[in-house]
What does this fold into?
Amino acid sequence: CSSDLGHVLTRRYYVAQHISVGTNDETRLIWNRTDGSAVLSRLSVNGAELGRRVLGTHAGKVIGIATAPSGVSSILWGEDNGAASLWTVNANYVVTKMVNYGPYDGWKATSVAVGGDGLPHLLWNRYDATAAIWQMSAAGDYLSDKSFSLPGFTVPSLAVGTDNMLHLALTRPNGETRLWTLSTTGNVTSQSTYPPLQDMKIKFITTDKYNDTWALWSGTNGCVVRTVSPNQQLIHISSGGAMTPEIGVGSDGYLRSLQTSSDGRSRLRIYDNSNAVISTQEFAPF
It folds into this structure.
């Protein structure tokens, strides 16, 4: 991940923070601003920007986006007091639904994911090391939840496979990480444990069409992506001092890596199955 600049789009104030890759291999990119407003960009298969829409101003900020096979995106907003909102945005960028939740005592929504059935799931964390996963309806209404008591762990990210199995990342303060796969009933069907990585913490997980987990560890000096599949593939990505907040994987199996730098610039890089960079798009804050 070199620091070379390619095509630069001149922008100010907004910074890219979240991505989601649809089944058509297009990427949705969320830009957040400190005033609570956000912008949704649609990127081509190669990462070029096709269009964007201002989502408006909210009391909090966007903390995640997930795109269903239909092309509909679920965008999760969070506020400092723990309240959350789930926005549904169709393939034409139109916000069709906004549902508000909370605040609930000590709880904060931290992640959103969508499975093969297109239904969103919300991950909530509480100060007492309790985590909960809410399954939502297509309209954004609460249907059911699964709760876990996880002393000593925080749960930074949730993913849902095309088979609707749940995937969780758990981490200890020392950086030890566990990756869980859960059945639709909430039972742990597989788990793996990873020792701390120097100067890195697990930030994000997602799944591919084969229901493998792609897990991102990121720090100021680079990042590591691990594909948790039968071969436990490990991909090292040197991000040239850039932070990597999130990743996505298309139906083509190619990794999309969103990288940001301290000056607000952002980069989307696409890697093929041999870990070669096949596309780079550079963005300046706007």
Q: What stands out?
A: The CA atoms of residues 177 and 194 lie 5 Å apart. Confidence is low (pLDDT under 50) at residues 1-11. The longest strand covers residues 49-57. The chain has no helices and 25 strands.
